[in-house]
Design goal:
This protein is an alpha+beta fold. It contains 10 helices and 5 strands, in the order ααββααβαββααααα. It has a 5-stranded antiparallel β-sheet with strand order 2-1-5-4-3, sandwiched between helices. Strand 4 and strand 5 form a beta hairpin.
Length: about 210
């Protein structure tokens, strides 16, 4: 999916790894507290602790990202930190960081980067905000680009029909149905047909 959203993907990922030398997280299409797509490059040990302890509840960065747009350094966030999450993150190299949030198509997308050595500069923050703005726009376009015929196929499969039965009901050949389904899978970034149907349902496309 990222290849259809982020131009020059390898170079951009390398740049994010350079600027976020302690890791980064990139999320698109936040809805009901969950992103449609999430790329987490934070240290695995920190990610495991974060999930085990359910740090999402009480995380000042998450609280800020859910209620604001724009850019903020973590050191500037004034949200309460009752679980001392910032101090715990420091032990894993996430000593300095910044978060950028943008709203496209009524949904939030965000980018957070962490460093172990210094704050990100104003220029770096401006560049990163422009990147997430662009990528979120491209994500919204890709996400909304399913055709009516592709949605029809997904809807039939969501109703429990086999591909052959769905093709017969839609009065198309099985090969045509598979072509439309393959296209929908690519646009949704789905691993397979079942995943494509699940994603379409989850995001109220069908």
């Amino acid at each position: 999916m990222l290849t259809s959203v982020i131009p020059n993907l390898p170079d951009e990922m390398a740049r994010l790894e350079e600027l976020g030398n302690s890791g980064f997280v990139l999320g698109f299409g936040l809805r009901f507290g969950r992103p449609y797509f999430l790329l987490n490059r934070y240290p695995q040990a920190w990610t495991e602790l974060y999930e085990q302890q359910n740090f999402m509840l009480g995380d000042p960065v998450s609280a800020w990202a859910l209620t604001n747009t724009g850019t903020v350094r973590w050191s500037e966030i004034r949200e309460p930190d009752p679980r001392d999450i910032f101090a715990k993150a420091h032990r894993y190299g996430l000593k300095y960081g910044a978060t950028m949030v943008t709203m496209q198509g009524g949904k939030r997308s965000y980018l957070s980067l962490a460093r172990h050595d210094r704050e990100l500069t104003d220029t770096e923050l401006l560049i990163l905000q422009s990147k997430i703005d662009l990528w979120a726009t491209l994500f919204a376009k890709a996400h909304n680009s399913l055709t009516d015929t592709e949605l029809e196929v997904l809807a039939q499969l969501a109703g429990g029909l086999k591909q052959s039965d769905a093709a017969r009901k839609l009065k198309i050949s099985v090969s045509t149905l598979k072509t439309r389904l393959d296209s929908a899978q690519r646009k949704l970034g789905a691993a397979n047909a079942l995943n494509a149907v699940a994603l379409a349902i989850r995001h109220n496309l069908i």
